[in-house]
Write a structure and sequence with these properties.
mainly alpha, 13 helices, transmembrane, 80% helix
Length: 348
Amino acid sequence: MASSDNIYTARQQYVLLILCLIGLATLILIGLGSYITAFLGAGILYVVLRPWFTALVHRRGWHPQLVTTGLLTFAFVVIILPFTALTLMLVSRIRAYAQDTSQIMAVLHKIEQKAGYALTTEQNVRSLVQQSVSWLSQRIPSLASGLLHFAVVIGLMLFTLYFMYTQEAGFLRGLRRYLPFRPNTLHELGDSLKNNVQANVIGQALISLVQALLSGLTLWIFGVPDALFWGVVSFFMAFIPVLGTPLVWGPAAIIKLSQGYTGQGVGILLVGVIVIMNIDNLLRILLARRIGNIHPLITLAGVVLGVEIFGILGLVLGPLLLSYFIVLIRVFERENRIRRRRLPTRPQ
């Protein structure tokens, strides 16, 4: 068929090609929607483990497949399995509390007796707890959501990570070729990704772990039941700036005070305010030069945004989205400034 028989102009063909690409990409994303966390998790692990890969492969000349296998094994044993165990423990215990609200109501009744007026009814408490469990279950990926789905997500994540390392040159070349950004913009986006992953994965995970250990130990010393469980809750809550662990040890102190254990309640408050809260600031100062420096407002807003969209991975991806938005605004501002300089000035 001759080219003149085509009813579309060259520009129309170009526009339709772009629309077809966008449509196909949308269908692919919809089809992979439930597994998108696997690819996002692979990207996060790629950034976290890449310094080791670079040191062993590019500097020492080790075999890429051998190093990749070792890194995948390390990621599965040291990162994925413990994180999965924490989420399983969190989901199972929260569901147990949801099924039996008698413990919660007993505490509330004691607080009501101290306060002198009714706070809520058992029906309202049960409804609130069940809503919280439903919300958490949708955003915390675990074996509770299905063994097959969990296995596919983990396998797809490790499979993707394997090819990202073994075919690293082609992967990076493809990013530079197909992403619609200038080289300096790609460099800024890369730095933003690195800073966010370092700040919200490496740095924040370390800070959260220390705060969780201190919180769990404090609650155990002062006789709070299920101290291990609340220590696990503290680990996840510590990712939220400002609020964080006070949402765990604060109510524990109030409960102890309402039960008449004044010394234990005051002790929890003193340790929480003086030690646990300040350890966050101290560790951030010590790690500030080694981890990305992300503004707390970006982290807080990003966590709220990210958890709603991506689930538990939103703790990292949410701040990253906001950081990318800010970077692109700066790029847009810079490009407009350059364009104005190139335009001829109009006579007054």
